[in-house]
Design brief:
- By secondary structure, the protein is mainly beta.
- Helix content is 5%, strand content 38%.
- Strand 9 and strand 10 form a beta hairpin.
- It is globular, with a radius of gyration of 13 Å.
Length: 119
């Protein structure tokens, strides 16, 4: 996928969140973003991180929110911004990645096209 493969999410809603042991899958009615590095959830007033008591509720609170924009910055981060201003940020920084983790995130557009990001 050339350019910003996440741009196909614009106008779609987050339909479900799946917690799978130590990673998260975000489903957008077809496309799926798998975050092996859990996303931070940025609101106007807070940042929720994996392990915070508020993390699950903050992430699940994005369900039904419509994607307004996406950004991919190689070796920095992936970001999904919702219409309400909430942002999901997945780090692609090698410095913030556990040494045994080969992939930071993986994306399927729902039509057999895949993109994998390494830290």
């Amino acid at each position: 996928m050339a350019g910003d493969p996440l741009s196909v999410l614009i106008g779609r809603q987050l339909s479900s969140v799946e917690f799978v042991q130590d990673y998260v899958q975000l489903h957008f009615d077809g496309p799926t973003l798998t975050a092996f590095i859990p996303p931070q959830i940025h609101t106007d007033t807070e940042v929720h991180r994996w392990g915070d008591c508020s993390y699950r509720n903050a992430l699940c609170g994005c369900i039904t929110e419509v994607v307004r924009g996406t950004t991919v910055r190689s070796k920095d981060s992936l970001q999904v911004t919702f219409a309400d201003g909430t942002r999901l940020r997945i780090s692609l920084s090698p410095e913030q990645t556990p040494p045994n983790l080969a992939e930071a995130a993986m994306f399927s557009d729902g039509h057999e096209r895949w993109e994998v990001w390494q830290p």
